[in-house]
Every structure is written in C-alpha cells, then in structure tokens.
C-alpha cells in the first residue's frame, strides 16, 4: 500500500486544518492587555497565564508541515514512476498554483509568527521604565488572519496536487507505446 495523491492530499489538508484551528484558538484567547503594577520608577506588567504563544508556534509548525508535505508530494514518484520536473512545469496552471501555494504559505507564516514572537517578547520583557506604559500585547487579528491564510494555503496545495496528478498522467500517457 504505497503513497498516492489522495493520501497526500488528505495529509496536506489535515495539517492545514489543524494549523487553522490552533491559530484561530490562539487569536481568540489572546488577552487584550496586561495589568500594570507601578513600582519605584518602573511599571511591571502582569499578564494572565494563557497558551497564546504555544498555540501560535504550534499553528506555525503545522503550517510548515503542511507546506513541506505539499511540496514534496508534488515531486514524489508515485507507483514507482518518476516524472521529471520539466514535464510537470509544462503545465502553466500547475506552475501558477505552486507559486501561489508557496507565497500564501509564506505570508501566512509571517502573519502567525510576527504576533506570536511579539507576544512572547511582551511576556519576557515586562518591566518598563516609562511610567505611562499600558502593558501592551501583540496586535490583534494577525494570528487569526494568518490562520485563515494557512487554511487557504493548504487548499491551494490541494489544487496543486490535483494539477500535479493531471500533469503526471499526461506525461505517462505520452510515454506509452501507441498501437
């Protein structure tokens, strides 16, 4: 029982869906601000305990896994038959969808990582010498937006895999002897 396009499509879509769910959950539980505690010449920001940072990194990890699975399955030889990259790239629609998939995944990764890292930095560097600090958190909406793009990226990978299957079948048909 080997690997086929349908299995890889399910894996890519499943990983993208998990990334989406984790990202949306991280966005929904992210606190809007911390509680400032004024001391002698400093403000210490106390943030409620929440798994936003861990969920953000997990969402990013599943996005990367989905992207790697989609990319590798595009060039993986199925049923012991390898198809040269040049034959796959003859399909202009496949090239367009591959580029869209990669670009969407990269943009999604940026939108997930930027607020996740910012949130982690806010939690680590919580002592401020500016007494007017209002204990900020990462910008609201970016992790959720990245999560939706993560889902879009996995759907674009799905379309790319369908187009890859078509290009592979066209190439293998050309190789068969005509009788």
Description:
The protein has helices spanning 5-29, 52-75, 85-88, 92-124, 142-175, and strands spanning 35-38, 43-46, 127-128. Strand 1 (35-38) and strand 2 form a beta hairpin. It has 179 residues and is mainly alpha-helical. It is 67% helix and 6% strand. A 3-stranded antiparallel sheet has the order 1-2-3, with no helix packed on it. The chain has one domain (5-173). The longest helix is centred in the last third of the chain and has 34 residues, at 142-175. Helix 1 packs antiparallel against helix 5 (142-175) and helix 2 (52-75) packs parallel to helix 5 (142-175). The chain starts with a helix and ends with a helix.
- Strand elements, count: 3
Judging from the principal axes of the Cα atoms, what is the shape? rod-shaped
Q: Kindly state the percentage of residues in helix.
A: 55-70%
**Amino-to-carboxy terminus distance:** 31 Å
- Tell me the radius of gyration: 22 Å
Class from secondary-structure proportions? mainly alpha
Low-pLDDT regions? none
Task: Give, in spatial order, the strands making up the sheet with the most strands.
Answer: 1-2-3
* Quaternary state of the chains: single chain
Please report the number of helical segments: 5
What integer is the average pLDDT? 89
Strand content: 5-15%
SSE string, helices as H and strands as E: HEEHHHEH
- Biggest sheet details: 3 strands, antiparallel
- Total number of distinct structural domains: 1
Keywords:
mainly alpha, DESIGUAL, 67% helix, 3 strands, transmembrane, three-stranded antiparallel β-sheet
